[in-house]
Fold this protein.
Amino acid sequence: MKTYLVTGGAGFIGSNFVIHMLSSYNDVKIVNLDKLTYAGNLENLKGVENNGNHVFVQGDICDKELVGRLFTEYDFDYVINFAAESHVDRSIKEPEVFASTNVLGTVTLLNAAKSAWEKDGVWKEGAKFLQVSTDEVYGSLGDTGYFMETTPLDPHSPYSSSKAGADMMVKAYADTFKMPVNITRCSNNYGPYQFPEKLIPLIINNCLNKRPLPVYGDGLNVRDWLYVVDHCKAIDMVARNGRLGEVYNVGGHNERTNIHIVKTIIAYLNENVDETITEDLIKYVEDRKGHDRRYGIDPTKIREELGWEPETMYEDGIKLTIQWYLDNKDWMDHITSGSYQEYYEKMYSGR
Ligand code: NAD
Ligand code: TYD
C-alpha cells in the first residue's frame, strides 16, 4: 500500500486525479487535504465518497500545525501538491492570496515533508514530493517554438509568478537538502469538473444561458489543450518513475486559438441542443492585462523517458467534455448559484 497526501483534491484536476488513482489501483490510499475555497467542491468527489482508501480532510496547506499532524498520523510515501489559487484573472485583482497559498503553502508542505522523511541526511526510501506546476511559468511564445524544460522561467501574471516562486522553493529543497522531488509543468487542461471561470466551462454555461460569450482581445491567443485525465496519468507516471530532481513538461501538441475553441462549442451546442445558440453570442471584450499570447509544450522528455503519450485526442475530448456539462447540469447549477453571480458581474461588467 502506498499512501499519498494529495492537496487540492476537491478542485478540477485534483478531483480527476483522486478518481483516476482510486479506480486504477487497489493499493493506493489517498489523504485529500483541501481548504474548499470557492474552487473546491465535494460534489466532484461523490464517486469516491464510499471508497475506504480515500480520507478527506478540510484544511489549509498553510496551516503548519495541521499539515504536521497529518504527516505524523499517516506515513506518506508521496505528496502531490495540486492546491493553489489557479485563475489568472483573479490573480490580477487579488494577488496576495496567490503568494500566500501558492508559495507559502508549498513551503509549509516542503517543511513538513522534510521533517517526516529526512533523518540525518537520509531520506525515506521511495518517498517523493511532486509539485504540480504549469507551463505559464515559462512566459509567452511568439508564433514559433515550444517550451522545453530548459526554457528560462519568465512568468508574467501574479498567478504564474507565484507558481514559479513555488517551483523555485521546490528546487531549493532538492538542491539544498537533497529532497526527492519532481516538478510537472502542464499546458491548459479541459474536462469534467472545471470551475466555470475558465474558458471552456464558462463558454458552455453562457451558451446554455444565452449570455454573451466574452472573448478577450482579438481572440487569437493560443493555448495548448490537454484532456485532464491524460494529465493525471502523466502525474502518476512521473511520481512512480520520474528521475529524482527532474522537471517534466506535459502537453499533447494541441494548440488552438481561443476563438476556435469558442466556435467549436457553439457548433456542438447548436447542432445538439438548440439552434438559437449561434456565433451572434460572441462578444469581443477588453483584453486581459498582460495577456500571454501563446503557450506550446514540447513533451519529448516525458514521452522518451517515461513513455507517456496523450490518449484522448482533442476532437473526441472536447465533445466528451461538452456532453459531460450537458449531462451534469445540476453540478453547474449548484456552482453558479450564490457567489458566482457576484464574481461574474465584478469580472465582466463594463468590459
Ligand atoms: P482549481 O482552482 O480547480 O482547484 C484548486 C483546489 O485547491 C481547490 O479545490 C481549492 O479548494 C484548493 N485550495 C486552494 N487554496 C488552498 C489552500 N490554501 N489549502 C488547501 N487547499 C486549497 O485548480 P486546478 O485547475 O485543478 O489546478 C490544480 C493545480 O494544477 C494548480 O496547482 C494549478 O496551478 C495546476 N495547473 C492547472 C492547469 C489548468 O489548466 N487548470 C494547468 C497546469 C497546471
Ligand atoms: P483561462 O481558461 O483563464 O486559462 P489561462 O489564462 O490560464 O490560459 O483562459 C484561457 C484563454 O481564454 C486565455 O487566453 C484567456 C481567454 N479567455 C477569454 O477569452 N474569455 C474568458 O471569459 C476567459 C475566462 C478566458
About this structure: The domain at 2-191+226-252+294-313 is CATH 3.40.50.720 (Rossmann fold). Residues 88, 188, 198-199, 202, 214-216, 221, 223, 258, 288 surround thymidine-5'-diphosphate (ligand 2) (CB under 6 Å). The first helix runs from residue 12 to 24. The mean pLDDT is 98.
